[in-house]
Amino acid sequence: MHPILVFVEQSNGQIKKTSLEAVSEARRQADTIKTEVVALVIAEKADSFVKDIVSYGANKVLSVEGADFKEYLTAPYIRAVLAAVSKVNPMAVLFSATPNGKDLAGSVGAELKISVIQDCISLNYDSGAFVARRPIYAGKSIITVKALKSPALVTLRPKVFPLGTAVSQTPSVEKLSVSLTAEDKRVKLKEVVQSGQKKMELTEADIIVSGGRGMKAPENFKVIEELAGMLNAAVGASRAAVDSGWRPHTDQVGQTGKTVCPTLYVACGISGAIQHLAGMSSSKCIVAINKDPDAPIFKVANYGVVGDLFEVVPALCQELRRDREAN
Amino acid sequence: MNIITCIKRVPSTETNVRVGSDGKSLETSGVEYILSPFDEIALEESLRVKEKLGAGDVTAITVGTSDAATTLRTCLAMGADKAVHIKDADSFKRDPFAIASALASVIKAMPYNLILCGKQAVDDDNSQVGQMLARLLNIPFVSLITKLEVSGATALVQREVSGGYEVLEVTLPAVLTAQKGLNEPRYPSLKGIMGAKKKPLEEKTATFDSATIETIKMEYPPSRPAGRVVGKGVEAVPELVKLLKEEAKII
């Protein structure tokens, strides 16, 4: 059997946790199919990433290194993936469904003339073909998709596929040399600007506290920022809050924002418009705090509190604090 | 400057999605359609680039059934100069690579300096046609842009990344995909709507590659347990914390 190739994404010298999820899933698939996992890491220097990749189940690591590969840029990274694909002739290439993973998978798809199954939430190998399930309409529906060509190109949604058990293993690493042309350098990275506070990526957060129209004003978000701080959570927002200019568009959860599936989603002053529910209904546990007992958000909330968020949220912070001091 | 904007007609984001009788596609009866929101942002940006440069031509292009002409008219009403309709009765069954190649085959014969797409259509959420189009035309690509400044034969863009943004310089022509935050799209004016009827809308045909992925089933997401109200106001908070700790075991 041909191996499964996994693209391992790094940023600022760290492997993304989502990539270890992808390696873990590749391992599970490979064990069922009885084949090997080959991981591809593209970085300025790849050495420091190898140990983790191998411990989560890669049989072999291919590395593409050099200053041209320090940060993600579509064209150089396509060259690296294509070099790995022609080297190992994989039955499937797995990526994480991160912004870069989706960017890269689609670009590789064009070169291989194969469409990508984006944002996959489950994967099976059945009668000689990969079959994946993925949400569409931001999660209002789930489709099952079959890959008709090899290699199957699949991006895996973050936080859906569990990490395997890390086992220490001796790495086998092979460096691939990839040469770039002038055409591959038509996009230049000038600068990376980090926003002031260290922000957690919504799609990768375990806990999200979101505010909606009920927040009434941008400065009121400090109420939910305090709760988010206590829960080590990311802060999200509904479309109403974003369109009012209270929060940056990057915080928006919903069909025209981000689709999230955290362990805990706390919706504060969010009524639960259908396009918002689409983006967060796959959260494992939903808490809703809203004045309106008829708000649709209460239909999906595991735990609802009918009340004024400006009273309930601070009380919740206080209760959590008391609880922590008691323990 | 010739700017092409790729657009898609999609069910409104307010749509209550129902599974059709074939068990693998959307039940379309009673569904209202809109210009996909990210494509609307892409078109708005195309218009702004043209307006800023004081010259240029914006063409909206789509692959779609005959109904897609209505959406192209919306683009013309917003301010696009012309529209190209690659007509395909089976467009909703095509896979992303087939759509991208059809677009590329028609665009190759058109003049262009800049191509803008939405980062994804909000129906199938495939988010790959832009990438593919760039590769098929052999031009640079940047996804998820939140700012664009065109100067001469290059563009300076901001691209959203975790916790911040990147600033990239791109040689034109290029394909860029629009992320929310790039702009606030305008509403078509009455004058725009009247004028749209007189603007050129050209129909084209294309050959489509056979599918490389196939949808075999469409279903509803797993239903959530019925919502449960813990209580009212601050009095409910201790109970909520207890449930989160002992029942949900989250905190």
Distinct helical segment count of chain B = 6
Oligomer: heterodimer
Number of strands of chain A: 18
Helicity range of chain B: 25-40%
Strand element count of chain B: 13
The CATH topology of chain B, please?
Rossmann fold
CATH architecture assignment name of chain B: 3-Layer(aba) Sandwich
Query: What coarse outline of chain B follows from CA principal-axis ratios?
Result: globular
Give, in spatial order, the strands making up the sheet with the most strands of chain B. Answer: 9-8-7-10-6-1-4-5-11
Shape of chain A: elongated
The most extensive interface, with participating residues per chain, is: A-B, 96 and 90 residues
Distance between the termini of chain A: 53 Å
Let me know the CATH homologous superfamily of the largest domain in chain A. Answer: HUPs
Helix-strand string of chain A: EEEHEHEHEHEEEEEEEEHEHEHEHEH
| CATH top level class name of chain B | Alpha Beta
Query: How can the largest sheet of chain B be summarized?
Result: 9 strands, mixed
Mean pLDDT of chain B: 96
Rounded to the nearest angstrom, the radius of gyration of chain B is 21 Å
Structural class of chain A: alpha/beta
Number of helices of chain A: 9
N-to-C series of helices and strands of chain B: EEEHEHEHEHEEEEHEEEH
